[in-house]
Amino acid sequence: MSDKLQRTLIILKPDAIHRGIVGEIIDRFEQKGIKIVGMKMAKLSDLLLDKHYAQHKGKHFFEPTKKYMQMLPVVLVVLEGLEVVRVVRTMCGPTDGRNAPPGTIRGDYSGAISRNIIHASEDEKAAYREIKLYFKTTEIFGYDKPDAHFYYDVERGE
Ligand SMILES: Nc1ncnc2c1ncn2[C@@H]1O[C@H](COP(=O)(O)OP(=O)(O)O)[C@@H](O)[C@H]1O
Ligand SMILES: [Mg+2]
């Protein structure tokens, strides 16, 4: 298996659910050849959000962000692919939707840093931690796609 094969966590935030764009967003990752290996809906508890956003505790946006993340349930997705942590972050775009370039998810859908549609793990360490926070190992599914050769050079792991 390629050492570039990674998993990452995305969260479709309450604004994505409310606006009915969950399918469109997930479609972007599927079109890119990124594999869905876990997916579920959940209402995020205070405790989970404290853990998830631990690095932001004490910042001015910490409490408002927690409130925003609890407006509706969210959709949690584990994605797999080559260098997928970085690729997915790039596809999401910068945190502030008003500064995010068109073509990125936040650039196309978000008009405010406080309503930015999607979360994506920032690096491999965060991805490992976040996937473990939300998913049991039995909720993640490894499987082969017969057309993988048309998305990646599978032999070379490139
Ligand atoms: N200045 C801010 N004002 C309001 N909300 C913010 C601000 N900065 C960050 N947030 C919210 O907190 C989340 C976590 O922030 P951060 O980790 O810096 O961004 P990212 O989600 O791009 O990794 C953001 O996605 C956003 O929902
Ligand atoms: Mg972050």
TrEMBL record:
<keyword id="KW-0597">Phosphoprotein</keyword>
<keyword id="KW-0479">Metal-binding</keyword>
<keyword id="KW-0808">Transferase</keyword>
<keyword id="KW-0546">Nucleotide metabolism</keyword>
<feature type="binding site">
    <location>
        <position position="89"/>
    </location>
    <ligand>
        <name>ATP</name>
    </ligand>
</feature>
<keyword id="KW-0963">Cytoplasm</keyword>
<feature type="binding site">
    <location>
        <position position="95"/>
    </location>
    <ligand>
        <name>ATP</name>
    </ligand>
</feature>
<dbReference type="GO" id="GO:0005524">
    <property type="term" value="F:ATP binding"/>
</dbReference>
<dbReference type="GO" id="GO:0005737">
    <property type="term" value="C:cytoplasm"/>
</dbReference>
<dbReference type="GO" id="GO:0006228">
    <property type="term" value="P:UTP biosynthetic process"/>
</dbReference>
<keyword id="KW-0547">Nucleotide-binding</keyword>
<comment type="function">
    <text>Major role in the synthesis of nucleoside triphosphates other than ATP. The ATP gamma phosphate is transferred to the NDP beta phosphate via a ping-pong mechanism, using a phosphorylated active-site intermediate.</text>
</comment>
<dbReference type="Pfam" id="PF00334">
    <property type="entry name" value="NDK"/>
</dbReference>
<feature type="binding site">
    <location>
        <position position="13"/>
    </location>
    <ligand>
        <name>ATP</name>
    </ligand>
</feature>
<feature type="active site" description="Pros-phosphohistidine intermediate">
    <location>
        <position position="119"/>
    </location>
</feature>
<dbReference type="GO" id="GO:0046872">
    <property type="term" value="F:metal ion binding"/>
</dbReference>
<feature type="binding site">
    <location>
        <position position="61"/>
    </location>
    <ligand>
        <name>ATP</name>
    </ligand>
</feature>
<comment type="similarity">
    <text>Belongs to the NDK family.</text>
</comment>
<keyword id="KW-0418">Kinase</keyword>
<protein>
    <recommendedName>
        <fullName>Nucleoside diphosphate kinase</fullName>
        <ecNumber>2.7.4.6</ecNumber>
    </recommendedName>
</protein>
<feature type="domain" description="Nucleoside diphosphate kinase-like">
    <location>
        <begin position="5"/>
        <end position="142"/>
    </location>
</feature>
<feature type="binding site">
    <location>
        <position position="106"/>
    </location>
    <ligand>
        <name>ATP</name>
    </ligand>
</feature>
<dbReference type="GO" id="GO:0006183">
    <property type="term" value="P:GTP biosynthetic process"/>
</dbReference>
<keyword id="KW-0460">Magnesium</keyword>
<dbReference type="GO" id="GO:0004550">
    <property type="term" value="F:nucleoside diphosphate kinase activity"/>
</dbReference>
<comment type="subunit">
    <text>Homotetramer.</text>
</comment>
<dbReference type="InterPro" id="IPR036850">
    <property type="entry name" value="NDK-like_dom_sf"/>
</dbReference>
<dbReference type="InterPro" id="IPR034907">
    <property type="entry name" value="NDK-like_dom"/>
</dbReference>
<dbReference type="GO" id="GO:0006241">
    <property type="term" value="P:CTP biosynthetic process"/>
</dbReference>
<keyword id="KW-0067">ATP-binding</keyword>
<feature type="binding site">
    <location>
        <position position="116"/>
    </location>
    <ligand>
        <name>ATP</name>
    </ligand>
</feature>
<dbReference type="InterPro" id="IPR001564">
    <property type="entry name" value="Nucleoside_diP_kinase"/>
</dbReference>
